[in-house]
Amino acid sequence: MSRDEIITGIDVGSRSVRVVVGQRIPEREKGSALQVIGVSECPSEGISKGVIKSIEDAVSSISLCLEKAERMAGVPIEHSYISISGAHVISQTSKGVIAVSKADGEIHEEDVDRVIEAAQAVATPPNYEILHVIPKFFTIDSQSGIKDPIGMTGVRLEVEAQIILGLSSQIKNLTKAIYRTGVDIDDLVLGSLAGSESVLTKRQKELGVGLLNMGGATTALVVFEEGEVLHSAVLAVGSDHITADIAIGLRTSFDVAEQIKILYGCALPEEIDKDEKISLKEFTQEDVNYSRRQIASIIEARLEEIYEMVDRELRKINRSGLLPAGIVLSGGGAKLKGSLEVAKRKFRLPATIGYPELATSIEKLNDPAYAVAVGLVLWGNRVADSSGGGKSTFRFSAVEGVKEKIKDWIRSLIP
Q1: For 206, phi and psi rounded to 5 degrees?
Q2: Can you tell me the distance from the alpha carbon of 170 to that of 86, in angstroms, rounded to the nearest whole number?
Q3: 296 three-class SS
Q4: Are the C-beta atoms of residues 266 and 278 closer than 8 Å to each other?
Q5: What pLDDT is stored for residue 28 in this prediction?
Q6: Tens of pLDDT along 328-373?
């Protein structure tokens, strides 16, 4: 099996590390079909709020997860697409302008590359690296809103792009942890962008949709409109904050609160009988009863607060209550009972739960928590299809230079 046939996605989360291994099966008509041959999940250590806190612990968690995936797939994992998240990830809009180089004014791929490079030359904040440059639209002379300018004629070419940046130290720490497991990095991909590959349809992206990926310690938002990324943000709150609130409210441990959340958690107190009780004896030695409705009120309050923070991000781009395809929830936090109803009420929009769209017989993958890991594999498949011949329309990543710098830096550390 050749190196290019295997595509692996590693979703490095605060709560879990998930690995999905896909095999490309060439099809005559449309690129390659994907078949999932390996899946694994392990608790993550040394990772908090999407950032590496201990490289040793993170390497151990990722290595264990890779070993399990390799055993299931029956092939060694040599290279992979890696998710990156955390509140350090920021985004900004940038513009690039160039003069068309050819005398006849026809725009070629080199012109598009040059104008995207010009958009990259923004004033990057200190200690930040560019992760993605995502063109929103092009303008030729005074005609704007152009999706693909190649082959058109003009004198002046402009682009408006979304630039996604991450803190250099965090990028280096994550990259170092992955390299120490013996795996090469194909690309670093923003988790919410990867998730959009697996749970959003092309039509949703055209109409206008918000994808909300609720992890353990972070909640990531990415908004699409007319098929392009309009806005992205990562908030330092997640489903672990709900667990912490339950632990404080019931005066119990975090682990017991997590079990209560999974088994009895609901964000709709009005739907629970006021006399229904939960006994802590089921989880600990304590014989104490608590009202299930009271626990639901705690969950609802924190969930509403998280959604309010997300709605604040939507207000920044004037899209609060104005996304025709609504909000799609993914990540482990989306499985909480009642989260959908609270989302509909809080965002004043239609809301659905996003399940990864990938033809597979592996039941485990039919889970919103696997949205990012599956999305990374689909992302890799798209990159492989676009680079396999013809014009590449896949211009998302700008991390190649960063990757080479980090590789050189790590090599310099190895005696």
Answers
A1: -70, -45
A2: 9
A3: helix
A4: no
A5: 55
A6: 999 999 999 999 999 999 999 999 999 998 766 688 888 999 999 9
**CA distance linking residue 20 with residue 1, whole number of Å:** 17
3-state class of 371 per DSSP? helix
pLDDT at 121: 84
pLDDT of 268-306, one tens digit each?
999 999 899 999 888 888 888 999 999 999 999 999 999
Structure token digits, residue 277:
């009780």
Instruction: Tell me the C-alpha distance between 259 and 236, whole Å.
Output: 22
Residue 163, SS3? strand
Alpha helices in 281-394 (DSSP H): 292-316, 339-347, 371-387
φ and ψ of 335, to 5 deg: -80, -5
CATH class of 3-87+168-200+357-413: alpha beta
- pLDDT tens per residue, range 71-104: 999 999 999 999 999 889 999 999 999 999 888 8
The CATH number corresponding to 235-352 among 3.20.20.70, 3.30.200.20, 3.30.450.20, 3.30.420.40 equals 3.30.420.40
Contact assessment for residue 174 and residue 84, using Cβ atoms and an 8 Å cutoff: yes
Query: How much of the chain, in percent, has pLDDT values that exceed 90?
Result: 74
Sheet with 32-43: strands ordered across = 32-43, 16-26, 6-12, 79-84, 184-190
**How many residues does the structure list for the chain?**
415
Q: Do the domains at 3-87+168-200+357-413 and 91-165 have one common CATH topology?
A: no
Q: Give the residue-averaged pLDDT of 160-165.
A: 92
Distance CA 39, CA 23 (A): 12
pTM confidence score: 0.90
Taking CA atoms, 192 is separated from 35, 85, 197, 199, 226, in Å, by: 22, 8, 9, 10, 18
For 205-237, give one letter per residue: b (16+ CB within 10 A) or e: bebbbbbbbbbbbbbbbbbbbeebbbbbbbbeb
- Match 């004198």 to its residue by tokens: 155
Token pair 């509140």 is found at 87
Whole-number Å distance between alpha carbons of 161 and 298: 41
Domain assignments of the chain as residue spans, ordered by start = 3-87+168-200+357-413, 91-165, 235-352
Say which CATH class 91-165 falls into: alpha beta
